[in-house]
Write a structure and sequence with these properties.
By secondary structure, this protein is mainly α. Helices cover 56% and strands 0% of the residues.
Amino acid sequence: NGMSKTPSSLFVEGPSDDTKPDYENIHGPLGKTMDTVFMKLFRSKMAEKVGVDSQLPQDDYQGLMELTAAMNARYSDRQVVQKLAQDVLVSLFPSWMPPQYKILFSKPFPKFSSRMNAWPTKST
């Protein structure tokens, strides 16, 4: 068929399936219900920006990945994709909050601020 075999020495075996975390019982500090609310809100905002959505349920992570793939397929320019993602994140907050973030959180509460910034990304 013209395809050459890849040497098995190029692959590293991953961990066994029995070490896989139970993702159903992993949630953020506000609980599973709030994780679901945030997932649905984020996905609906992202679908608005991209102009399409997955047929999977709103709280389904795979649906979010399908939406992300659609965004990347629709916009080949990385800067456009980054701008869309930033717009989605900014749209999750009241319009007055992003410009005031430094005054309200970063300067008076640097440790809290860094944790607040890291929290949404730790589950992605």
